[in-house]
Amino acid sequence: MASIADFARAPAPTYHMARPPKTGLMDWLTTVDHKKIGILYGLSGLFYLLVGGLEALLFRIQLAVPDNDFLTGEQFNGLVTMHATTMVFLAVMPIIAAISNYFIPLMIGARDVAFPRMNAFSFWTFLFGSLLLNSSFLFGGAPNAGWFGYAPLTGSQYSGSGIDFWWTGLAMLAISSMVAGVNFIVTILNMRAPGMTLMRMPVLVWMILVIQFLLAFSFPPITVGLILLGFDRTFGTVFYQVSMGGDPQLWQHLFWLFGHPEVYVLILPSMGIVSEILPVFTRRPLFGHHAVIFSGVAIGFMGFGVWGHHMFTVGMGPIADAAFASTTAIVGIPTGVKIFNWLGTLWGGKITFPTAMLFAVSFIPMFTIGGLSGVMHSSPPIDLQQHNSYFVVAHFHYVLVGGALQGLFAGVYFYLPKITGKLLSEKLGKVHFWVFLAGMNLTFFPQHFLGNHGMPRRIYTYPADAGWNTDNMLGTIGVILMATATLVMVYNILTSWKKGKPAGNDPWDASTLEWMTTSPPPVHNFDFTPVVLSERPLWDHKRTPGFEIPVPETSESIHMPSNSWRPMLISVCILLIMVGLLTHLWPLCIVAALGIVAGVYLWVTEPA
Amino acid sequence: MHTDAAPHRPSPSLATWLIACLSLLGAFALSGCDKPTRDVYQPVADSAEISAWFYHLVLAVDAVILAIVVTILVVAIVRFRKKPGDEELPPQSFGNMKMEVAWTVIPTLIVIGITVPTLGGIFELARKPDLNQKIIEVEVTGKQWWWEFDYAKEKLNTANELHVEVGTQVILNMTSADVIHSWWVPRIGGKRDANPGRRYPFYFRPYQVGTFDGQCAELCGASHALMGTRVIVHPKTGADSYEAWVAREQQQAQKPATPQQEAGQKVFMTKGCVACHTIRGVSELAVGARSRTSGPNLTHVGGRTSIAARTLPMTAQNIAKWVKNPQAVKQGALMTNLGLSDEEAAAVGAYLASLK
Amino acid sequence: MSVHAEAIEEGHGTGSLGVPNLKLAMWAFLGSECMFFGSLIGTYFFYHDHSLAGPLPKDVFSIGITSISTFLLLMSSLTMALGVDAMRRGKALRSRNFVWGTALLGLTFVGFQVFEFHHFVTEKGLTLATSLFGSSFYVMTGFHGAHVTVGVIWLSIVGWMIHKGHFGQEKAINVEVSGLYWHFVDIVWIVIFTFVYLLEFAK
Predict the structure, then answer these.
(1) Is residue A8 included in any domain, yes or no?
(2) Quick one: which of A280, C49, C82, C101 has the fewest CB in 10 Å?
(3) Domain enclosing residue B180, as ranges
């Protein structure tokens, strides 16, 4: 029977590159290798996960007891705004980007993404945008109008310079996401190995494909919303000026037209990861592979038609409320299909429970709780009570922490050995899992009660007699547990990276292409381009006679892109434009714009 | 409602399993056990009742679904754990069309079952009341960070505390003078946004006499947390009836009765308070009744139960504390710190508290 | 194997879908741009008759002048198509001339827009801050103008690359993709001209 040892027979390919590769720090700054960019995204995401967690810890300390004065209202608002903005845009999305960067080309049998330099450009634009956003803490205070920054609170009349950092930073993140979206759409559709038909693609690749469409099509509306906000604050336009007839609800529509697809951007990759992990540790195929794919696509499509359910309290009128209530409820159907297919995968398998599997399995009930409370919010009579209350906080944290983040943690334990070549400690992994699960439920489950007992979100203090004391104290204890667990994970990653057990090519006996190459993979990913014969190419190679992946005798000749400074140069110019807008230094904007033109010229004339 | 919804999965180590379960159980034993004063599911008006009814409907459906999912999950991971040494592969099943159809069709039916009555609920909540009956109609304006209640027909204007009558239909027309606020008194009904530049009605009919608290539910700046409100539902008859309250409120402000109150009125008239505040019968100079800088009408401020949007209980001392340094009580408060002496502040406190 | 080795060269290969990467990327990008202009034009229609102060659209628009600039932009789509076609057939010089001609027409269009904005601000008193109409009109058409400007710069570079012999028939895709962008920008203008300018006078 064939085994993955066969692949070692293939001769190493011969390279041609336009320029000699760089080494050390220079290599990292100019890299266009999807794997290195993936690592950069991952490290940034992990860093911001800790920052966002610290922000949460601070405001949970404030909320631990009633009438607390650890923070002022202004500081509290800044922390909740930055916590959400950080977790959504700077932690979860980059970790997703890390996994898609590193693994999409490996999973589809490609040597890199379609546009390697554009990929580097996305990363640097994201990084500079995130630094710009966070620099607000140093210059005049963090943005404090909530992560969905409702006009007119974000207007210059009501908010300080933090909002300028917020809109410029987010605009950079939007550029980064749109470019990445286009890049990955092309990569996934067009760079697949021979034989990898769309329906043979791993579910994770499918989910990433869906979210790239969501990124490409949902970021423009918020970009427009941010531009209108920026023009209002910088050039005196009157888009959100009520005294000039402006209507702040325009912002809400533009924001949620982005905001709801964005929620699916955060959750779909984790659904993909779970769909990859469950089959591996049950030793059988994913139940209803096609149904899981189609339901993911359906969720993505519906994401564009449900934004109004965030606005039931604003007074859109009963007709609009009824329409959005119906479309929202329908999202429950494909979500249910996914959940039952996962259960179907578990049923009848032979299940083992390494940490990755623990997180993947725990994703199912935690996400189900979040999904079911979401069904409540689709009903306006219920939502009118729960909207902007802690019930909603509980709901989306079950989806985003119990769902998205647990899925990503599963991904870390499952995929990191491919990146580092070392296995993570299972012992520490299990500590991480159980402490995190306990902390997360301790924090967010009682918040259902807080919401039902009338506690609005984003209040920095509350009276002792409202009946919210115990649940808030539990929440704070839970956050401390989650923070501890996350530090255990960081320690685990760092120590295993240095001295973990070697992982080998295929530590989990998995079925997809990324496990056929070495851990970590060579620069060119695969010594030869694999031919894909089924939806479980590696599994069938190992076990199904007649489905072996053919190993060529001759060496492939490949062209690899060279390192480039151009992507970072253009990102820096975009940053300078934003800084110019922030400081009203118009010459800087003009110089930076010319810099972009020059950068693009250098880019297109650079020998790849 | 105190169901333990946490998943219980075995793990290789009994100790970690126990610790995790005990913490979860400990949490659930404690959670939601404080006595709530603003429980959305103890409605005192028709609006909250409709919300509560739908909540319990969906909660029941959700509980059944969650129970099914968790049961299948727990059974699966107990029954289908790999036995040590068992290296044989399980059956390689790729799916089952009948089951796919089943778990598409059944959720669809459930969704229809929830959505159809929901649509009825939406229109029920939005139904215009019969204007031929007795109606209390109030213009509600959210301001940073307090609520103005203007009873146009009764020609009275008050702040933060809404007075209504049991059994009588209420129409609140919500708007805002600055940023978006959201008026939420959980036991009365769901929240409604107060949007600047828009006016949007909220209908309810209270059926229980009492005092019910709520607060702003849309982030509106530094002191969003201190933008409380209160609904006082009066009985139809008696000394505490709604009509009696209206009659009291319609009177001019009371005259100062003590020298300190007299001094307080003088401070009020001379130190600039009149620029933003009205006391009917004393000063009605306040500019821009609906503007952002205009403060609450104080004609009967002493009759309210709290000051600064339910931030402090109504006492002369608290008013003194508030006027002495509003920003110390409420960060970012728009009320000017007039630099009053302790004595002046105490006098204002005594005077305003006397305006029952 | 060669498919994938090639495909990495910045998208010149024809990939799994049989479409060059660059072209696929441009289509995806244009889809994204549709949402962008959709939101901007939507904002304009949400607001254009909510202005609390004049001047109103009817007071400022001059259909005559804008028709000329619209005509020029339409013609530029024709020259662009001719340029792409010439490159496909390997006539590099002819293609260069058409591409540069397109850029010149685009530049003229931008010139008209600058003139129009200047006229509106100085003669008609319509600025960004005047009214909702002013804000939404300038931001919408301004972003369109910025796209035309980007296109002009892009086409100038493409023309230069053809001139220098960097883009031959085998790299016709580069000209084609810039053409896709240019046609898109034209179409957006047709939408704006029809619904923003003409419809104002149809009422």
Answers:
(1) no
(2) C49
(3) 135-250
Q: Do A235 and C161 touch (CB under 8 A)?
A: no
pLDDT, tens only, A328-350? 999 999 999 999 999 999 999 99
In this structure, the answer to whether residues B218 and B272 fall within a common structural domain is no
**Integer Cα distance of B215 and B222 in angstroms:** 14
Q: What is the pLDDT of residue A311?
A: 94
HEC string of B302-337 equals: HHCCEECCCCEECCHHHHHHHHHCHHHHCCCCCCCC
List of chain C residues whose C-beta atoms are within 8 Å of the C-beta of residue A190: 7, 15-17, 19, 21, 24
pLDDT of residue B338 exceeding 50: yes
Distance CA C41, CA C46 (A): 9
How far A406 CA lies from chain C's nearest CA (Å)?
A: 30
Whether A604 contacts C167, CB under 8 Å: no
Q: Are B122 and A321 within 8 A, CB to CB?
A: yes
Residues near A217 by beta carbon (within 8 Å), at least 6 away in sequence: A261, A304, C31, C32, C35
Name every chain C residue with its beta carbon within 8 A of the beta carbon of A528: 1
Residue B51 lies in a domain: no
Q: How many domains does the structure of chain A reveal?
A: 2
- Flag whether pLDDT at C11 surpasses 70: no
pLDDT digits (tens, 9 = 90+) for C175-194: 999 999 999 999 999 999 99
Res. B155: pLDDT tops 60: yes
Q: What is the pLDDT of residue B9?
A: 46
My answer on whether A111 and A198 are in the same domain is yes
Indicate the average pLDDT of chain A.
93
pLDDT class for B2, splitting at 50, 70, 90?
very low
Residue A223 contacts C, CB cutoff 8 Å: yes
Does residue B147 sit in helix, strand or coil?
strand
Tell me which of A187, A191, A212, A532 to substitute to probe the interface with C (most C C-beta atoms closer than 10 Å).
A191
**What is the distance in angstroms between the Cα of A577 and the nearest Cα belonging to chain B?**
29
What CATH code is carried by the domain that includes residue B347?
2.60.40.420
Handedness of CA A81, A86, A89, A92 (dihedral sign): negative
pLDDT of residue B170: 96
Q: Which residues of A are identified as catalytic? A: 83, 112, 147, 176-177, 260, 262, 264, 275, 309-310, 335, 338, 457
Contact B219/A471, CB-based, under 8 Å? no
Mean pLDDT across the stretch C79-91? 93
CA distance A398 to chain B (A): 12
Q: Which 8-state DSSP code applies to residue B163?
A: E
- Asked if residue B42 belongs to a domain, the reply is no
Comparison of pLDDT for A335 and B294, the residue scoring more: A335
Tens digit of pLDDT for each residue in A204-234?
A: 999 999 999 999 999 999 999 999 999 999 9
Query: How would DSSP label each residue in C66-79?
Result: HHHHHHHHHHHHHH
Q: Give the residue-averaged pLDDT of B228-257.
A: 94
**Which residue in chain A is spatially nearest to B215 when comparing CA positions?**
A456
C-alpha distance from A155 to closest chain B C-alpha (Å) = 9
Question: Chain A residue with minimal CA distance to C161?
Answer: A605
Q: Rounded CA gap, C158 and A81, in Å? A: 44
DSSP string for residues in A348-379: TS-B---HHHHHHHHHHHHHHHHHHHHHHHTS
**Residue contacts between A and B (CB atoms, under 8 Å):** 365
> Is C3-202 assigned to CATH 3.30.70.20?
no
Between chains, do A329 and B121 touch, taking CB under 8 Å as contact? Answer: no
**Domain extent listing, chain C:** 3-202
Name the residue facing C8 among A181, A238, A559 (closest C-beta).
Answer: A559
Interface of A with C in 524-583 (CB under 8 A): 528-529, 552, 556-561
Q: Does A235 touch chain C (CB under 8 A)?
A: yes
Chains that touch B (3 or more CB pairs under 8 A): A
C-alpha span between B206 and B185 (Å, rounded):
12
